[in-house]
Amino acid sequence: MDLRTPAIVCAARPHGETGVILRLLSEDHGLVASYVAGGRGRNLRPVLLPGNLVEAELRVRPGSQLPSARVELVASRGPWLTEPLPAAAITWATTLTASALPERQPFPALHQALTALLDAVCHAPSARGWLPGMTAFEALLLRELGYGAVERSADPDWNAQLAAFDKLGPLVARYPLADRRSDVMAARAMLRERLGRIE
Q1: Are residues 45 and 122 in the same domain?
Q2: Which residues contact 84 (CB under 8 A, 6 or more apart)?
Q3: Rounded CA separation 6/9 (Å)
Q4: Domain containing 183: what range?
Q5: Residue 165 to residue 194: CA distance in whole angstroms
Q6: Which of 108, 137, 171, 177 has its CA 20 to 30 A from that of 188?
Q7: Do 20 and 37 have their domain in common?
């Protein structure tokens, strides 16, 4: 597999002394894991932040099943990762994506929805502007993975939006995250706790 594609960074895990195992979501190729040599260095570390948009070049290394990747930053979410609520939203959305989606199966609707959600989190004046998008993204993920359609609230009231978000949590935990619930759902719990501070 040799390809060049725009992608969203969903997860970056240290590997070895300086490398990183990177999970990227591409519109045409789905979720792809790859190895980035030197990914923990000061030049690449800010590029590999969850939520960042990158241009990735993936190549299969001889004798390895994991492609190697070179990435260039297209758009950074770094400034929003210093703010508690946007950081929690970006972390939850990318962690859910990296944990729930199967490898190398394209989900173009989810890629487009995640792109729009990340843009909303970064540019809406408050969580009231992006929470409906987060709920829509979770519902779309459930539907795309075959767990059926979920009714969503069209009520713009903040409490109704929080109730809709709360209603989806058990479904996400039970279905796509059934075997990884504790680790991944902690990111959602942190987001919900921060949303609860908004009046």
Answers
A1: no
A2: 194
A3: 10
A4: 78-195
A5: 13
A6: 108
A7: yes
* Helix pair 181-195, 84-100: axis angle to 10 deg: 150
Mean pLDDT of the chain: 91
Q: What percentage of residues in the chain have a pLDDT greater than 70?
A: 95
Give the residue among 3, 2, 24 at the shortest CA–CA distance from 13. 24
Across the range 72-98, mean pLDDT stands at 96
- What predicted TM-score, i.e. pTM, was given to this entire model? 0.91
- Residue 107 has phi, psi (to 5 degrees) of -130, 75
pLDDT for 61 equals 67
Model confidence over 61-80: pLDDT tens digits?
A: 666 678 999 999 999 999 99
Decide if 68 contacts 58 (C-beta within 8 A): yes
pLDDT digits (tens, 9 = 90+) for 142-171: 999 998 888 777 788 999 999 999 999 999
Residue 77 CA to residue 120 CA, distance in Å, equals 12
Q: How many domains does the chain have?
A: 2
Alpha carbon 67 to chain centroid, angstroms? 20
* Whether 27 and 82 share a structural domain: no
Residues 6+ apart with CB under 8 A from 65: none
Q: Compute the distance between CA of residue 21 and CA of residue 23 in angstroms, rounded to an integer.
A: 7
